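Please decode residue identities from the backbone states below.
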């Protein structure tokens, strides 16, 4: 423990003492946690017998004292071999990282758990977040476990299931009559004015660390092999950037021999795809989407904080970017459910639909080892697919009426 060295500016490399600081004084760049890798004694065996949660990678997470960990046992989710979906798409080695089965039913338990633990370590007396839906519940649940009050700032038009879930954990839910970018701006202003740890604002350097475990776990679950291609849904871009950094750390620590052949691809929904647009048009800047419009509400960030970094990662890791529309997303949700028995929310549909495009036009070969991140659970957004589901068959409670329906 205690291998955190500093907070370092991602742009100008200036170092700062670890604190609630998240923006560089010199250049306004974002700050990242840096570690003393040289003093880290880890090898593949280090992790073998540990807890089946993402806290198994403790050395690579920014918590100094184990006693401050606030854990709901999130992470170490199944790496699901998807033979039937693979066959449907034309892939021999397809795996799904099934983060829909985390304690609050999305991958956000990873960054939120780390950030709330850091809030506890810093003795903060309240936490909160700006959310497109899933971070609300992840933060609220960990806050409940830590016995901290929790303030959520989210657009009012997100799925009610996500609002209800966060309220059930006891959070104060501030539904902003505007976009995610409005909610995020207000959360940032609150974090400047009050001693609250906003997990994705002033705790962001710690928050993003949690998502690196999405890379560690996949590689460990593949017996320390690096996949050929990773498909990642993108909103702020933080997760994609963290997965790439996780791969770099595995290489830095000699846990894998090479990451050179791993491609990383971004998936966004057509109704809000600023990163994909920039990539496809070979631009270096992100043009914000003012009014996102897609069923993939958890990905609806018009002005993504880590957008340019996600863009740079796509280039560094020789990946692609695709933006399926809402019909493709709905079809992909049902295809996944009906081939693999995994029910995802639209974000997972976005990833599967993007993968489908890449296989169809030959950008992914059938023999490649592909990992697709399924980041959230379908029960959180049933409205998104209601219109394309068959109606249930309503019957009188007698055998004769029912048996005639069963055609086999
Ligand atoms: C937040 C979220 C994402 C995207 O994460 P970012 O780090 O903001 O890019 C993907 N999938 C789901 C289900 C999410 O809730
Ligand atoms: Zn700087």
């Amino acid at each position: 423990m205690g291998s955190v060295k500093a907070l370092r500016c991602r742009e100008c490399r200036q170092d700062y003492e670890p604190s609630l600081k998240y923006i560089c004084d010199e250049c306004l760049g974002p700050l990242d946690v840096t570690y003393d890798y040289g003093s880290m004694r880890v090898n593949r065996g280090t992790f073998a017998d540990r807890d089946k949660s993402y806290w198994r990678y403790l050395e690579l997470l920014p918590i100094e004292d184990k006693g401050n960990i606030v854990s709901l046992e999130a992470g170490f989710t199944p790496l699901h071999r998807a033979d039937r979906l693979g066959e449907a798409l034309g892939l021999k080695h397809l795996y799904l990282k099934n983060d829909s089965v985390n304690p609050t039913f999305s991958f956000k338990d990873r960054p939120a758990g780390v950030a709330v633990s850091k809030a506890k370590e810093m003795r903060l007396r309240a936490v909160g977040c700006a959310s497109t839906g899933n971070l609300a519940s992840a933060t609220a649940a960990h806050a409940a476990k830590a016995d901290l009050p929790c303030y959520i700032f989210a657009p009012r038009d997100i799925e009610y299931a996500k609002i209800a879930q966060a309220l059930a954990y006891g959070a104060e839910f501030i539904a902003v009559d505007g976009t995610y970018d409005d909610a995020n701006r207000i959360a940032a202003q609150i974090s400047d004015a009050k001693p609250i740890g906003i997990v994705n604002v002033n705790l962001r350097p710690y928050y993003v660390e949690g998502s690196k475990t999405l890379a560690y776990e996949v590689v460990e679950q593949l017996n320390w092999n690096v996949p050929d291609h990773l498909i990642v849904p993108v909103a702020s871009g933080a997760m994609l950037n963290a997965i790439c950094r996780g791969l770099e750390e595995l290489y830095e620590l000699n846990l894998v021999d090479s990451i050179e052949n791993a491609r990383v691809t971004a998936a966004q929904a057509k109704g809000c795809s600023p990163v994909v647009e920039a990539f496809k048009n070979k631009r270096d800047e992100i043009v914000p989407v003012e009014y996102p419009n897609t069923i993939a509400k958890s990905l609806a960030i018009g002005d993504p904080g880590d957008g340019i970094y996600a863009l740079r990662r796509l280039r560094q890791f020789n990946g692609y970017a695709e933006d399926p529309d809402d019909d493709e997303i709905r079809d992909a949700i049902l295809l996944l459910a009906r081939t693999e028995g995994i029910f995802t929310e639209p974000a997972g549909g976005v990833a599967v639909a993007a993968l489908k495009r890449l296989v169809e036009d030959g950008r992914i070969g059938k023999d490649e080892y592909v990992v697709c991140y399924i980041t959230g659970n379908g029960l959180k957004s049933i409205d998104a697919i209601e219109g394309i589901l068959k109606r249930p068959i309503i019957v009188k409670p007698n055998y004769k009426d029912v048996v005639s329906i069963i055609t086999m």
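Observation: Residues 395 and 403 are 11 Å apart (CA to CA).
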